[in-house]
Write the structure tokens for this entry.
Amino acid sequence: MRRGRVRSNKRKKGGMSLVLLVLFLLIAAGGAFFAYTSPLFEKQSPTIIANSTISANSKTPIKFKLSDNVALKSCKVILSSNAKEYTIYNQKFLIKSKTKDVEVPLPKEILSDKNGKWSVLISVTDSSLWNFAMGNSAQFRAELIVDNTPPQIALIASSQNIRKGGSGVVIYRVDDKNLKETYVDIGSGVKFKPVRYKKDGVYATLIAWPFNQDSFNPKIVAIDSASNKSIGNLQISRLDKVYKTSKIRAKDRFIDGKIAELAQSDSNYVNITNRLEKLRAVNELMRKKNEDLIHKYSKAVTSLKGDWKIKPFKPLKGSKRVSDFGVKRYYYYKNADNIVSTSYHVGYDFASVKHDNIYSSNSGKVVFASLNGIYGNMPLIDHGLGLYTLYGHCSSVLVKKGDEVSSNMIIAKTGVSGLALGDHLHFGILIQGIEVWPLEWMKPKWINDHINAIFRKADKSLGYN
């Protein structure tokens, strides 16, 4: 009997041990499953966004961005060169965040080192409990260039004068192996982007003086990767030009006809019932929307392939100019003193015969060819170097977006689409999204003296003549 009890007790102890073992394994498996699936133990490494070559100086720190899917924990930055090593940043982030922009100033010993060749090691960890609570980590190594020298600017050739509303060209050189950007700034936030011209470090750009902007103070600006900035003044004489104004009577027949037709084509204005509100909506709001689209498609500057040649533009042969560029139009209702809307006319209007041929005059690429509100059916052509031509109110367009057009090619037919009361062509010229006086680009002498001669002078200076 006693032996039986002993065996029974042993069986109980053995069964208990097995239960505890199974329980332990279940707990361990549950813990492992929790650690594997819980956000606290996430395994995604943080990200470091930085340039492979970093330029910095006494005024410009080392800059980079950190990000993590949960939260960042710490970051360290080490500079090394041969046997030297400096920890210039070692930070634990007290406030949890998923992203952080980091700026690390250079210490004096780095700025004074004439060797200037340093390696940057950026290390970051996140707040995950993975890896025995040490978190996930990432590293990024980059080259550091200590750069205190601003870019060197040298003017090669430029237009001697420019008329208000007119155009010009500037060709210049920038010496800086770490150049970040360069442009010509004429003031009031208007900048013209150049393209490489025949040699590395040489740039060319067309510029314009907006017809509705009184100031014109052109400067060449060059900025390198360490934010060193150089400014070169351009000595270009300014020629003033007074643009006309005109008063136009807004008749009920006009508002109930063309204006109402355009308002019906746009859901933003279709429900306007008041005549004068409808006129203002189309003449001002729709016009701005249409011109914003034109500016968008005419801002890009295509690179040059060798020489850049432009012939005078003659879009409508045997035609008569019926409206000028830059005219400020005042629309009045019933009484001449009752001005109800204003707008600018930013092109030339030419009239000939109904559905007359429209020519491209110069080769280029069609960047837009569709209906554009008050401009009606409208092709827009890129002729390179930021020069664009626009053809509005067409009855039909014979080219499509992406087409390459050749000189003297028929691209459309005149018409009355958009805000046009009679069959005619609205012809516009833009430089990097800025409307300019078309007459200059229609005169052979002006093109030769103010554009081609500048390129010839630059070519001679660069050794191409």
Q: What stands out?
A: The chain has five helices and 32 strands. The mean pLDDT is 92. The domain at 245-443 is CATH 2.70.70.10 (Glucose Permease (Domain IIA)).
